[in-house]
Write a structure and sequence with these properties.
The protein is α+β, with helices and mostly antiparallel strands and 252 residues long. Helix content is 45%, strand content 13%. The radius of gyration is 23 Å and the shape is elongated.
């Protein structure tokens, strides 16, 4: 046996021992992590390679809403009979809803920390699940609703909503924003606490035009809906949303 053979065997044995030690140490480190966090990491590892960042002209992945689901959403929107009075009441009733208040009322059940994984159904009560569904229905009605589906708002100008989410969480609102334009982007925000930086993270940017009424109540309603959706499901430290006036629009 040559000296080189001895070295090769020695290195191989040390590598196997280190591999076993590494597996044990990683296993111990993962044992303290939450089930939701582990699921999120596995999804990112398994799905990310097959979902490349979209380029101009490409449509990124989004879950398809079935005909039954769409019909059910439209029926719920019609039942809202959304007009200025109903919308004002919705905003006044739900604008104060913070994570602390949602948890205190039992709508959120021990959710993961802000900036962590998406909040799953196991962390919402039945009432919390119903509120999340209603927030998405109201958001859909404000963005796309008209008299044909029971939305009675006199829209007088066009506004543009730009919403940015981590790509791994974009599915949470994809069906609601089905008529929106999607753009791939990278995050630039750094968490001052160092726990949930967004720097260089893969993001999806949604842009959708909607009709505003005279007192900008639609914009207030959209902001209220997005805050609720973030608190009940998306779970970002900051959910980036911007609304701005559209001077000229092909949709006007």
């Amino acid at each position: 046996m040559t000296y080189e053979d001895d070295v090769t065997r020695l290195v191989g044995r040390v590598r196997r021992e280190m591999d076993e030690e590494l597996r044990d140490r990683v296993r111990c480190a993962l044992a303290d992590r939450s089930h939701d966090w582990l699921v999120e990491q596995l999804l990112n590892l398994s799905l990310s390679p097959s979902l490349p960042a979209p380029r101009d002209g490409q449509q990124p992945f989004r879950p398809e809403e079935t005909e039954d689901e769409r019909a059910a959403r439209l029926a719920r929107v019609r039942a809202l009979s959304l007009d200025r009075t109903v919308l004002r009441r919705w905003v006044d009733d739900h604008r104060p809803m913070t994570r602390e208040k949602l948890s205190g009322r039992g709508l959120l059940l021990d959710p993961p920390p802000k900036g962590g994984p998406v909040i799953g159904r196991e962390h919402r009560s039945a009432e919390g699940e119903e509120l999340l569904c209603q927030a998405k229905d109201v958001l859909y009605a404000l963005l796309f609703g008209d008299e044909g589906i029971g939305v009675h708002l006199e829209r007088v100008e066009r506004e543009l909503l730009t919403l940015t989410l981590p790509r791994a969480k974009a599915y949470t609102v994809a069906c609601v924003l089905q008529a929106a334009t999607e753009i791939g982007a990278h995050g630039t925000w750094r968490d001052p606490h160092g726990t949930s930086d967004d720097d260089r993270a893969a993001n999806t940017v949604y842009q959708v035009e909607y009709g505003e009424i005279t007192d900008e109540l639609v914009g207030n309603g959209i902001s209220t809906c997005l805050r609720l959706i973030n608190e009940l499901e998306v779970n970002e430290q900051v959910l980036y949303g911007r609304m701005e006036n559209v001077e000229e629009s092909t949709l006007a």
